[in-house]
Every structure is written in C-alpha cells, then in structure tokens.
Amino acid sequence: MNDYYEILGVPRTATQEEIKRAYRKLARKLHPDVAGPEAEDQFKEVGRAYEVLSNPEKRQMYDLGGESALGGNGGGGAGFGFSDIFETFFGAAGGASRGPAPRGRRGQDALIRLEVELRDAVFGVEEEVQVDTAVLCGTCNGTCTRPGTSVQTCAVCHGRGSVQRVARSFLGNVMTTSPCSACGGHGTTIPDPCPECSGQGRVRNRRTIPVSVPAGVDTGNRIKLTGSGEVGPGGGPAGDLYVELRVRPHPVFARRGDDLYARVEVPMTAAALGTVLHLETFDGPEEIDIAPGTQPEEVITLEGLGVGRLNGPDRGDLKVQVDVEVPTALDDRQRELLLELATLRGEERAEPRLTPASNGVFSRLRDRFSGR
C-alpha cells in the first residue's frame, strides 16, 4: 500500500501549507520536461498523493483506512492528471484551442414603449412601431466583405483562431494558447471590407414593425417579437424586440382587472320613480334600467361588456355606479311639493337612523364591486 505522506516526504502531522510546499518542490523536480519521461510515473504518484492529502475529507478517510477507504475517489489516479496540474497553477493556459470564433454573433435585444387606448386593451389592435436599430447590410448581405471578394485565411494562425507559445515556469516549459491578435480569434481576415458597413455586416436604419396587441393587455405588459431586435455583428442572427405597453387613462371608464367601471348621475326623482338611461359604451349605446327606488351608489352590472381576457375567449363586465343628485336650489313651488311629500311619508321631522358600521356606504361599495 502506498504511503502518501512518505511519497510527499511529510509527517502525518503536516499542515496544508507544508503539504503544498512539498508537492510543489517534488513537482518541479519530477516534471517530465525537467527529469525526462522516465520520471512520469513518479510525477503522477506525487500528484495522486497531493490530491488526497490536500483535501481535508479525503485526508481524513485516508488516515482512517488507507487507500481502500477512498474507494474510487482518491488513489486510482483517474481524476488527477496533467490538465489538473496545469489548471491548478496556470488556469486554462495549458488547455487546448477551441477553434476559431465565429465572426457572426447574436445581436442585442431591444425595448420600445407603446401607448394604446383603453378601447385597444378591450378589443386588441394592430399597431406599428418605428425602431432605429441595426439591420443586415444590403450591400454585402452580412459577409462583411466588398462584393466580389471574400475573407482570407489568417496568415498568422493559419485559420485556427489561436496561437501557441512556450512559457517557462517552475514546472519547466509550458505550452499556452491564446486568441490570435491578427484575426481577433476568427481564423480569417477581411482584406477588402464592405464600403457600406465597414466590414461590420450590419448598418443602422429605421424599421417599421407591425405589432399585434391582444385584448386584455394592461400597463407594464410586454410583447416579445422574436428576431426583430438588432442584427448581430458580422451579420449574426438578430436579437428580440420587446414592446412594453402603457394603456392611456379614459375620461369615462376606469379599469380594475378585466372589469370596467363607470358612474352615472340621475335626479332624485328619477331614482325614486325609475327611468331608462342611455350609456355610450365601447360596444355602442346601451340601455340601463334604473329601477324605482334605486339607492345612491347602487351598482348595475352589464355582463360581458368589460375588457377581453388575455389569452381567453370571454370578457369582463361593465359595472355602472348610480349617483343620485339631490337638488340644492328649490323654488317655492318645488319646496311646497317636497314638504307635501314629506308630510305624506311622515318625514316632516326625520330622525337619523343609525345602522351598523358593517352596513355603511363604504362596505356596500366594497361588497358590490367585489361581487359579494
């Protein structure tokens, strides 16, 4: 059985810093680039020992049961090799090239705001928006080159998009990979850029885009138009366009959810005797039946005349609150008739009738508007 402490040359009481120092010293000494290929097995053995002893949990398991206690998590060496060592000391410097970077990249998303009328939120509407954005270059069609020419393979990286250099370290010579500065990592160069877009594959322009606003939208809702945002650099795919909506206030109707609310004022006599009112709604004129004895703040519901439900087939309701107008200026004859009415109803000296707070005006309004 391998003794990892003996391999690293440290006592079992060694601290993590002592273990790291010992490993680095041995890694410099036994690296195959320094000591030759014959030291590779020793170098890997030192790496396995360091992998276990530098991990407090694995070290505890090893101290209790040796390599057998680690199972597949330590002594097998499958999880620790040259790439792990390079990453420990140099990050990704020793990694392999991922190939040339594509010149075309996805464009950015865009956001625009659109105001619509309340009627448009009720029924939906087709609108158009104008956007100043990046569009595909019409001259080169996104190729970035002058018509009749093409990109050329980079003479520095030979199309790889990256270059390799040898860097010296305490482990010896290490091969590092970095993007080619001559071609920007693309693997190709543009010797004759498009004169219209200067080799960008896109130009700025104003576009008119149709927007389908569905019924039921409200302020703050956003409509996503996929692929209607900016065209990307190098003629890359376009981003998305988001249209944020604001519903303008209406002078007559207010909105709460999918319901519309309106207020009508009727004379006291009409509320007492009953009448029929004509209200101009978004669906055209509607008759509202004011029943005899209608009380102030009573709510009359016209079903299905509210806002269309978003992504649904039906609509909310139109709720009409009745305000009773009490006359403030009476001539002599009107006063005489009202006094006569008060006498007939025994209301010459009306006394206030107290009602429970739960039956007050505000609670009635709450109950009616909430549909209780």
What does this structure look like?
With 372 residues, this protein is α+β, with helices and mostly antiparallel strands. It folds into four domains: 4-80, Helix Hairpins, CATH 1.10.287; 110-139 and 197-247, HSP40/DNAj peptide-binding domain (Sandwich); 250-326, Urease metallochaperone UreE, N-terminal domain (HSP40/DNAj peptide-binding domain), CATH 2.60.260; 332-372, no CATH class. It is 24% helix and 27% strand. The chain contains ten helices and 15 strands. The chain has helices spanning 4-8, 16-30, 32-35, 40-53, 56-65, 82-90, 118-123, 268-273, 332-344, 361-369; strands at residues 110-116, 125-136, 152-153, 162-169, 172-179, 188-189, 202-213, 222-225, 241-247, 254-256, 259-267, 275-281, 284-290, 298-302, 318-325. The protein has a four-stranded mixed β-sheet. The protein has a three-stranded mixed β-sheet with strand order 1-9-8. The chain has a two-stranded antiparallel ribbon with strand order 2-7. Mean pLDDT is 85; it is low at 73-97.
**Shape-level CATH architecture of the largest domain:** Sandwich
In which order are the strands of the major sheet placed? 10-11-15-14
| Low-confidence runs of at least 5 consecutive residues | 73-97
Helix and strand element order: HHHHHHEHEEEEEEEEEEHEEEEHH
Helix content: 10-25%
Instruction: Give the C-level CATH assignment of the largest domain.
Output: Mainly Beta
Sheet bearing the most strands, described?
A: 4 strands, mixed
